[in-house]
Every structure is written in structure tokens, then in C-alpha cells.
């Protein structure tokens, strides 16, 4: 096994079946992902937790986000006054904070989905990496990505025995 995917905000068509399981019948404060797993997030809400997370075993010397960084750097950056760097290529947007954290985002350009769908990858150790999908906007990214990253690590930590 190379990776495990956690859908924290599953498909609306399966939501009713998923939320009627015994796990969702009582509060689960020890699992930071339980609230999202048991209740569908409205589409107009930008949650502070990832909506999908993948934990992967890394091959030795493999950089899980190298491809995205190469694609990002092919475009000219727009630098905001707060230091946020934005690289745009059609509907793909790469957002990078001054500390180097970056996410590959997709701009749906839709009234139904007014947010960006973003994916960030972080190394947990020399053998493990997590990537997680989250919703954001360019305006919220600087502070929201910090919160989402912390919540992604908390979700991972809650899964350890």
C-alpha cells in the first residue's frame, strides 16, 4: 500500500447513507474530522479543515510537490503587499506565502463554486507526506492556509494509534 485517502466531505449523493452509521450517532471530539465527515458542508462555506486528505509513503529522495513547483515557476508572479505570490496559468493558480508554503489551486470561475479548490503537499517525515484539498480564496489564503495546514496535521495525528 502506498497511500490512504480520507474523504472528509464526501459525495452529496452518498451523504445520507454515510451519516446514518453508528459513528455519526454521537459526538466524536477526539477526531477533528468527525464533524465534517458526518455533516455535508454547504457549498457557500469555506471550511477551516481540508475536505480531502491523502497520506502517502514517499519513495526515497522523491519530492512530492516538485512537479507543481516547476509548473508554478513557468509563470510570472504577482506579489501582493502582504507578500502573497500568485502565479496564474489559465484556470490554474499557484499561491505561495512568504514562508515558502504553496498550494496549487483551480479557479472554477463559477457562481456556484466561488472559491478556489486548492491542494497542498507537506512532508511529515522522510518517509511520509500528506496532501490535502481545501477551499479558499486568494483573499483568505494567507491566514486560512495556516489554519487548514494545522488541522490537516491534527487529523493525521488523530489517526495514529
Helix percentage: 10-25%
Write down the Rg: 16 Å
Number of strands: 8
The total count of helices amounts to 4
Structural class: alpha+beta
Oligomeric state of the chains present here: single chain
Q: What is the ordering of alpha helices and beta strands?
A: EHHEHEEEEEEH
Note the main sheet: 8 strands, antiparallel
Intertermini distance: 18 Å
Beta-strand residue percentage? 25-35%
Q: What's the arrangement of strands in the largest beta sheet?
A: 1-2-8-7-6-5-4-3
Q: pLDDT below 50 for ≥5 consecutive residues: which ranges?
A: none
| pLDDT averaged residue by residue | 82
Global shape: globular
List the helices and strands and how they pair.
Layout: E1 3-7, H1 12-19, H2 34-38, E2 52-57, H3 66-73, E3 77-79, E4 85-89, E5 92-96, E6 102-107, E7 116-123, E8 128-136, H4 141-159
Antiparallel strand pairs: 1-2, 2-8, 3-4, 4-5, 5-6, 6-7, 7-8
If you had to describe this structure to a student in words, what would you say it looks like?
By secondary structure, the chain is an alpha+beta fold. It has 4 helices and 8 strands, in the order E-H-H-E-H-E-E-E-E-E-E-H. The chain has helices at about 10-20, 35-40, 65-75, 140-160; strands spanning about 5, 50-55, 75-80, 85-90, 90-95, 100-105, 115-125, 130-135. An 8-stranded antiparallel sheet has the order 1-2-8-7-6-5-4-3, with helices on both faces. The longest helix has 19 residues, at about 140-160. The radius of gyration is 16 Å and the shape is globular. It starts with a strand and ends with a helix. The model has no long low-confidence stretch (mean pLDDT about 80).
